[in-house]
C-alpha cells in the first residue's frame, strides 16, 4: 500500500493516542520540537475504518478514516458561519423561546443559543421581571463580563447620566463598548417595565450592512477595514480607548467584527486625503445601517430578555416619553457576556445530544436482538435494570450504570459469549462510555461481571438464583471467585455500586415487564455527561 500523501508532521501532531493526548481534555502531551527532524511513515495499514501508521521513531498511531476525510472548519465567527439577514426575513416571527422551556429542555436551549450564533440574537419570553434576573440568564450559558458599568446596569432615565443610553432620547444603531479591548461580544437586555410611549427596540445586522457596502462601494469598504479608529470613553472613574477598524476582517478577508458607535469615535489624526476618504466611507456605511429594510423593530415587554451578538448586530431604540404626569416608564437591566462561553455551552449540548442519539440508536437497533437466550431483548433487559434502579431510589449515576451496563454486548459481541468465548463486554462497554461519562458510571459497568463472580462466592444461595444463560456465562467468564479474589474485589472502591448493578441486572429478565422507554432516562443521562 502506498504511503499516505498527508503531511507527516500534521498527521503525527494530531495523533489521538493517550501517549500523545490527555484523554480527558484532548490536550497534547508533547511539544512539536519533540518530534525528530527526519520524521517519516515507515508502514501503514487501512482496515476496519481506521488508518494505522508506524512511524520512523517507533511510535504507532491509529486514525479514524472518517476523521481523515473530514473537511476543514473554523470557529464560526466570520460571515461564512452566519445567516445574514434583513428585517423581512423575520416576518414570521423572532427567534424566541419560553424561559421555562429553555431551562427544562436541552434541545430548546440549544435552539436559542444556536440562533444567537447564526442570526445574532434571540429573545427569551417569560423571564421573571425581577431585578438581577438578567444575571441568571447569562449563567445558563456562560459568565458575566463585569465592566466599569458594574456587573449589571440599568437602562432608564437617570438624573445625571454618563451615557446617552440613560436618557429618553432616540439612539441610532450602534455597538456597545467599542472603546474596550476586548469588546464584550454579547449583550443582554432584560425588560422589567415598558409602559412608556415609544421606546421600541431595533436591530440591524452589521455583517449584512457591511456586505451591502462591500457590494455597492468596494473602495469605501476597503477604507473602513484598514483605518484604525480611536474609540474612546471617559467619565469620573474610567478612561478607555481602543483603536480598531469599523469593519474587521479575518486573515481570509471575511467580515469578522463590526464596531459602530458615532458617540464614541475619537479624533482621527491622519493626512487630509485619508481623512476625506475615511469620512466619505464612514458616512456611506452609516447611511446603509439606517436603511429601513435592514432595521428589525420590535417591542420588549416585561419578562422579555434579548440576547445579541455585540460585535455583529447594531442595536437601537426609539425615543420615549419619560415617567411623569401623563407618561409611562421604561426600565431594562443589561449586562455583558462573551460569545466563546455561549458557543462552548452549545457545543457541549450538541455533543451530548449526538452521544445520546447514538446510544438511543443502539437501544432501537442492536438492542432489539435476543439477549443471551433470555426471554427479553438486550434493550428490554437494560431498560428493566434501569427502571429497577430508579424504583429503588438509587442515585442518578447508578441508574445510568444499570441502564447501560450491557452496552458492550452491542455489535453482536454477545454471540461470542454464548459461543464460549469471553467477550469482556464489561470492559468494552465501560471504555466506550468513558467518552461521555465519569468513573461513577463507567466503573460499575466495568465491574458488573466481576460482581456476579463475587456474589456467587460471598453469598450462599446467590448462584442458585442465576438463570440458565447466566449460569452458562458465569463459567465462560471465569466462574466463582476464590476467597482471596472475593476479598480483593470487596476492597475495591466501586465494589458496592457494582454489586447493586449486578443485582438489578439479574432481576431484569422478565418478558412483557412494563418499563419506560429510553427517552425517559435521557434527561438523567444528559445531566451526568461530561
Which tags fit this structure?
single chain; 530 residues; NE0471 N-terminal domain-like; Double-stranded beta-helix; Hypothetical protein af1432; 3 domains; 6-stranded mixed beta sheet; 17 strands
Q: What does this molecule look like?
A:
With 530 residues, this protein is of the alpha+beta class. The protein folds into 3 domains: 8-68, NE0471 N-terminal domain-like, CATH 3.30.2020.30; 79-345, Clavaminate synthase-like (Double-stranded beta-helix, 4-Layer Sandwich), CATH 3.60.130.10; 365-528, Hypothetical protein af1432, CATH 1.10.3210. 37% of the residues lie in helices and 17% in strands. The protein contains 18 helices and 17 strands. It has helices at 8-13, 65-68, 99-104, 106-118, 133-138, 206-216, 218-226, 272-289, 339-364, 378-391, 396-404, 414-418, 425-433, 439-458, 468-476, 483-490, 495-507, 518-528; strands at 41-47, 50-55, 60-64, 96-98, 121-125, 153-155, 171-174, 186-194, 201-205, 229-234, 239-244, 247-249, 255-258, 295-298, 305-309, 313-317, 330-337. The chain has a 6-stranded mixed sheet. A 4-stranded antiparallel sheet has the order 7-16-9-14. Strand 2 and strand 3 (60-64) form a beta hairpin. Helix 7 packs across helix 8 (272-289), helix 11 (396-404) crosses helix 14 and helix 13 runs antiparallel to helix 14. The protein is elongated. The model has no long low-confidence stretch (mean pLDDT 91).
Amino acid at each position: 500500500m502506498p504511503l499516505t500523501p498527508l503531511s507527516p508532521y500534521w498527521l503525527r501532531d494530531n495523533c489521538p493516542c493517550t501517549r500523545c493526548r490527555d484523554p480527558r481534555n484532548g490536550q497534547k502531551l508533547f511539544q512539536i520540537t519533540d518530534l525528530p527532524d527526519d520524521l517519516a511513515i515507515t508502514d501503514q495499514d487501512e482496515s476496519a475504518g481506521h488508518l494505522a501508521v508506524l512511524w520512523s521513531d517507533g511510535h504507532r498511531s491509529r486514525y479514524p478514516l472518517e476523521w481523515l476525510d473530514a473537511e476543514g472548519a473554523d470557529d464560526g465567527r466570520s460571515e461564512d458561519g452566519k445567516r445574514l439577514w434583513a428585517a423581512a426575513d423575520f416576518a414570521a416571527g423572532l427567534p424566541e423561546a419560553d424561559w421555562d422551556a429553555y431551562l427544562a429542555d436541552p434541545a430548546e436551549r440549544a435552539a436559542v443559543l444556536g440562533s444567537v450564533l447564526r442570526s445574532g440574537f434571540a429573545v427569551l419570553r417569560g423571564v421573571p421581571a425581577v431585578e438581577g434576573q438578567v444575571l441568571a440568564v447569562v449563567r445558563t450559558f456562560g459568565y458575566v463580563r463585569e465592566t466599569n458599568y458594574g456587573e449589571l446596569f440599568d437602562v432608564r432615565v437617570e438624573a445625571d447620566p454618563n451615557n446617552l443610553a440613560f436618557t429618553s432620547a432616540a439612539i441610532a444603531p450602534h455597538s456597545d463598548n467599542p472603546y474596550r479591548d476586548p469588546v464584550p461580544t454579547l449583550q443582554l437586555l432584560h425588560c422589567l417595565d415598558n409602559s412608556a410611549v415609544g421606546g421600541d427596540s431595533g436591530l440591524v445586522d452589521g455583517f449584512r450592512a457591511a456586505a451591502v457596502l462591500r457590494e455597492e462601494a468596494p473602495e469605501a469598504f476597503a477604507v473602513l477595514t484598514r483605518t484604525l479608529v480611536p474609540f474612546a470613553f471617559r467619565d469620573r472613574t474610567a478612561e478607555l480607548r481602543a483603536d480598531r477598524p469599523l469593519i474587521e476582517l479575518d486573515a481570509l478577508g471575511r467580515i469578522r467584527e463590526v464596531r459602530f458607535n458615532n458617540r464614541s469615535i475619537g479624533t482621527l489624526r491622519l493626512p487630509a486625503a485619508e481623512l476625506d476618504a475615511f469620512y466619505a466611507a464612514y458616512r456611506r456605511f452609516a447611511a446603509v445601517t439606517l436603511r429601513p429594510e435592514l432595521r428589525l423593530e420590535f417591542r420588549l415587554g416585561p419578562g422579555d430578555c434579548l440576547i445579541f451578538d455585540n460585535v455583529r448586530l447594531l442595536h437601537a431604540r426609539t425615543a420615549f416619553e419619560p415617567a411623569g404626569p401623563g407618561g409611562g416608564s421604561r426600565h431594562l437591566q443589561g449586562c455583558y457576556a462573551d460569545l466563546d462561553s455561549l458557543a462552548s455551552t452549545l457545543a457541549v449540548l450538541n455533543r451530548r445530544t449526538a452521544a445520546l442519539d447514538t446510544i438511543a440508536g443502539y437501544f432501537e437497533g442492536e438492542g432489539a436482538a435476543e439477549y443471551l437466550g433470555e426471554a427479553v431483548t438486550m434493550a428490554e433487559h437494560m431498560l428493566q435494570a434501569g427502571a429497577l434502579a430508579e424504583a429503588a431510589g438509587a442515585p442518578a449515576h447508578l441508574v445510568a450504570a444499570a441502564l447501560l451496563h450491557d452496552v458492550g454486548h452491542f455489535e453482536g459481541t454477545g454471540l461470542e459469549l454464548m459461543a464460549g468465548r469471553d467477550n469482556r463486554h464489561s470492559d468494552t462497554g465501560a471504555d466506550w462510555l468513558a467518552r461521555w461519562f465519569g468513573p461513577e458510571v463507567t466503573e460499575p459497568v466495568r465491574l458488573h461481571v466481576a460482581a456476579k463472580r463475587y456474589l456467587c462466592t460471598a453469598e450462599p444461595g446467590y448462584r442458585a438464583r442465576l438463570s440458565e444463560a447466566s449460569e452458562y456465562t458465569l463459567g465462560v467468564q471465569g466462574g466463582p471467585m476464590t476467597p482471596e479474589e472475593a476479598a480483593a474485589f470487596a476492597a475495591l472502591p466501586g465494589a458496592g455500586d457494582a454489586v447493586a448493578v449486578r443485582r438489578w441486572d439479574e432481576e431484569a429478565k422478565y418478558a412483557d415487564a412494563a418499563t419506560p422507554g429510553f427517552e425517559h432516562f435521557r434527561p438523567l443521562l444528559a445531566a451526568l455527561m461530561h
